[in-house]
Amino acid sequence: MTETRTTWAFVGNFLDLGSLDSGGLTALMVTGLVLLAAGIVAAQPAGSWLFGATGRGTAQWTEAGAALTYRGGAAYGWAVLPATSLRDGFVQVRFKPVAGREDQAGGVVWRWRDADNYSVARANALEDNVVAYKVVGGRRTALAPGGTPAGTYGVKTKVASGAWHTLRADFSGSEFTVTFDGQRLFAVRDDTFAEAGKVGVWSKADSVTGFERPQHGEKS
Q1: CA atoms within 13 A on the CB side of 120
Q2: Tens digits of per-residue pLDDT, 134-153?
Q3: Which pTM value belongs to this model?
């Protein structure tokens, strides 16, 4: 819709539309549509984020410069960087859990394939823990930290509400290492997603969470 409005504004800069008869106006509209389809007029920069949700609802994301805010609306909300493609590397983000009665979560995603298939690690201020998951076919499954009994649900650690935190995931092959506020918390192994994918950020349910733009890179 933005591109269409800009196309007509562009044409209007050069022509007095009021001076055209119906035939001329029709020809002008056809020309504008052709230019628009060809990408010649009103080419807009590609968005730096791809937003969406896993499960029910519609994720509510807002941008302010390089910052993002998630304001609930979905079972799980994600925002990925569409130009990224990493198999082995890292993704790191600073986030602030602000509000939420059900959840106050902030996370990072990697090897994102689509809305229903990716890896994620998140911290939750209401639960005071950090957990890694795989999301396969839209179903989220917790990954037990290495060296712990099967079914262990992440690691307990203080996640203060209203404060900035840093969450990082390093991934190489089937091994992922999760670091929170500079402290290495745990590693997990999972070979579900072996190919390169996008990286980004993640939140959940009614969380209100602020994010700075994530850092990411190849394995050094």
Answers
A1: 33
A2: 999 999 999 999 999 999 99
A3: 0.79
